[in-house]
Amino acid sequence: MSLRAEGLTCVLGGRTVLTGVDLAVEPGEVLGVVGPNGSGKSTLLRALAGIRGPAAGRVLLDGTPLTALRARQRARRIAFVGQEEDLPPDLCAGEVVALGLVPHRPPWAGGDVVERTAVTAALAVVELDGLADRPVDRLSGGERRRVLLARGLAQDAGVLVLDEPTNHLDVRHALGLLELVRSLRRTVVVSLHDLDLADRWCDRLVVLHDGRALPAVSDVDPDTVSRVFGVAAARVTHPVTGRSRLVFDSLRESS
Q1: How far is Cα 74 from Cα 170, in angstroms, rounded to an integer?
Q2: How far is CA 4 from the centre of its chain?
Q3: Which residues of the chain have pLDDT under 50?
Q4: Between the CA of residue 200 and those of 40, 42, 68, 195, 248, what are the distances in Å?
Q5: For a surface tag, which of 41, 107, 218, 250 has the fewest beta carbons within 10 Å of its beta carbon?
Q6: Are 175 and 187 found together in one domain?
Q7: 165 and 233 share a domain?
Q8: Burial level of 235, CB count in 10 A (0-12/13-18/19+)?
Q9: pTM for the complete prediction?
Q10: Cα separation of 196 and 60, whole Å?
Q11: Could you read off the pLDDT of 92-106 as tens digits, one per residue?
C-alpha cells in the first residue's frame, strides 16, 4: 500500500506545529521521520494514521483519502503503535495483542483458536513467547513496548505506523525490532529518536525542521544534521561491518 500526504498542516493545542507537509511512502518502503524534540513527529504520524485529522491538506491511502474510510476500514489498512500508551493493568499481554484482531472480526467475536494462534504467533515474533497470560503491570517497559508492537503486527495491516518503537528497549532488542520491521515487507512509517539507527535502517528519511518537512532523502547530509540538531555530525565507516555510520559530537567541543 502507498501512503501520501499533500499540503498537510497540523495544529496541536491551538499551535500550528507543521505546515505544508508533502511526502510519499511507496509500497513496501520504510520511511523514517526524525527531528528535534517538539518538532511534530508524533503529531505527523497520528495524522498519517488517521488518528488526528489535519487542519489542512489530506492523507491518501492507495489514492483514497483517509476521510473517505470508516474507522474499521482504516484500521484494517493502517496499524498505529503510539509512543506512550497507558494499558489497563488488569489486562494480560495476550489480551492486549488480541485487540489488534478487532477490526477483522465481527462484534463480540474472539477467544477462539484462531485468535489464540494469532496472539501466540505475534508474541513469538517479538520474543515474548509464553507471556500471553502475564498481567501488563508485571511487564517491564521494554516488554510493554514489544507487546504493543505485537498488537500492531496482529492487526495485519498493509501500513504500519510506529512512533518511537525503540523506546525502553536495550540495544539488542532495538536492533532486532528494526530488523523485524525491515523483514515485514509492509509499508512502514517510523519515527526514531536515534539518528544513526534511522539513517541505517530506513530506506529514506524525512527531517522535520522549523515547522516543515524537508524533502525525503536516502542519506542525511551531516550539514543538515548539524543545522537542524545543533551538533557536529560526520559520516564514518564502521571498522567491522564496513557500513557508513553517522557520528555526533557537541559543536562546542568540535570548535
Answers
A1: 32
A2: 16
A3: 255
A4: 22, 21, 35, 9, 15
A5: 107
A6: yes
A7: no
A8: middle
A9: 0.91
A10: 29
A11: 999 999 999 999 887
